[in-house]
């Protein structure tokens, strides 16, 4: 039985890339959308049951991970990823009416917005001080508030705030894509599709020599493709890290289930973050970790040996 989700928190205010990504999720049509100022607030809204789900940015193809999202998944009450959404991102530069590139002294954006436009900004507004805002859309609202002169944001955010477009497509990489995740309180993962991702956090046993190699080996020996590995400090003390892992396959796939059991044996702790359809898998079979012929052959052989037949 699938649970109906009706209230979606997201990194707001309206006009963020996160809102645009959320609107591509068919189930959100007619749902209540709850803009939150920061990623931790969006995640907390789900934990407190003020929202059924939250969409937050996880990583970008140019700038990498969004640390508050990783930290929010690794700590606190457990949350689960139900779906991922990929969105190409293009940035424009907006300011108040009458401004031009020579008069802009301050430019604000989300840290990923500033990072992805830094080359363009250095070349075209070298005099400008760069200011970090909680989101690109908050940066646009900040121009209206008079907090700074200009914002790097999505066209919708510039238009919503009736700002003047100073430049279009100011991103350094035209192919930039951001990966967002829809998180819920823990629930049964969606059924396998044959093209799924499994995400987890491995807290390795630090006193164990070769602990990370053991973790990787659990996947490698079962022929499971690891698609991402990212470390974050656990914040206990310097030198303590946890590892965010994504692999092809679904927790209901025999091989993935066995790898998770293996991790449970070798790690200090394992936090399962979810199994969900891989976005952009353009044909069935991407991200599959179903038993191969070699696996069924091995299972059959073991059964025969146990039965005294081989
Ligand atoms: O600030 C936003 O609009 C977001 O949704 C976060 C973000 C920022 C920059 C690139 C992609 C997502």
Automatic annotation (TrEMBL):
It holds the Pfam family PDT. The keyword Transmembrane helix does not apply. Residues 200-277 form the ACT domain. CDD domains: ACT_CM-PDT, PBP2_Aa-PDT_like. Gene3D superfamilies: 3.30.70.260, Periplasmic binding protein-like II (3.40.190.10). GO terms for molecular function: prephenate dehydratase activity. The record marks 178 as: Essential for prephenate dehydratase activity. Residues 7-185 form the Prephenate dehydratase domain. Keywords: Amino-acid biosynthesis, Aromatic amino acid biosynthesis, Lyase, Phenylalanine biosynthesis. Its EC number is 4.2.1.51. Pathway: Amino-acid biosynthesis; L-phenylalanine biosynthesis; phenylpyruvate from prephenate: step 1/1. GO terms for biological process: L-phenylalanine biosynthetic process. One of its GO terms (cellular component) is cytoplasm. InterPro entries: ACT-like_dom_sf, ACT_dom, Chor_mutase/pphenate_deHydtase, Preph_deHydtase, Preph_deHydtase_CS. It catalyses: prephenate + H(+) = 3-phenylpyruvate + CO2 + H2O. PANTHER family: PREPHENATE DEHYDRATASE P PROTEIN, PREPHENATE DEHYDRATASE-RELATED. This is Prephenate dehydratase. The gene is pheA.
